[in-house]
Amino acid sequence: MPLVIGEDFHEILYNQIRLLTQFYPPTPAFNLVFKKDFSKSNKANEIYEVVYYLLNILDPVMTKKKLPSWPLISRDDEINFKKELLEYINSLNDLYEYANIPNIMLTHVILPTKSSRFMECMLLLTRLVLSEVLRNKFRRTVCLPLADESESFRKHYLSIEADNARKLRDFQELLKDKEEEHKANEKTVRKVDEEMRESVSRLNSANMLFVEKYPIYANLGDKFEALHEMMRKIQQINELSKSCKALQSYLDDTNLVLEVNNETSSNQVSSLLEFIKALTHLLQSKLSFKLPTPSCSEISSNSNTLYEIEKDFVILRNALTIRKEQTQLMIKQIDEM
């Protein structure tokens, strides 16, 4: 809120500066301009005299360093002094923790008594000087100017704004990096998808070529089933053949002696008819079923059937071997693709 300059303001400012003059004797030039209504003067140089007096009390060494154009002798000195004073006053908040002096512009310095902003700075500067004098005199923090709550709030608000801006900037940078990473991932996925499509296309082409070059036999399963059935028949015929061979060996033997696991004693067979009867009786007692007596024609027919089955089996086995070699060759070609 802008400061309202009234009669009370001029009186308060005058009394506070007058109190300082009791401890820090002013220069003759200061005494010429310092009156009760000095703050109403239209002469800027008179205000500069009082301001320099206050700053010199605050820190003589720093004031001499910051305001080298003082005293004002020429027009150039006055121009330079205004710039130096502006910079010095605006730096007081950095030099003193409890200063709370608002920043001013060059226009405020050029016409100080016409600017409520500059007059407010002058009053706050006077309070700062008084507090520093008391602190230095008594070596304790007494009468320190109260911190302006609105100024403290403004600083806190600016700090929050700066922190939010920094976080927003970090978030935007992170978002940008993630977007670039996402684009790169999309590009990689598209490339992999294209490669997969090409691989599937090549696989389909190879499959079609395989079907054309090596047609699939629909009845291959039936042929395997027929092969198993033939194998069972072969086993049966093989067993029958063994029995026939054993029987033939007895028929060819002139001794005609039949021994059955020591369960019966050796018997002399006087004729073929008796031998057949004895063999039939023995088999019936062991197997509990009647075994027909094979004839020579049946034995010959079964031998021929066995030969034909073995011949078909060899042909089918050769066909399966060729098929296996073709399949292995096709698998090798697919792997090479």
UniProtKB/TrEMBL annotation:
Positions in coiled-coil regions: 168-195
InterPro entries (alphabetical): HAUS_6_N
Keywords linked to the UniProt accession: Coiled coil
Domain HAUS augmin-like complex subunit 6 N-terminal: 14-236
Protein name: HAUS augmin-like complex subunit 6 N-terminal domain-containing protein
Native species: Phyllotreta striolata (Striped flea beetle)
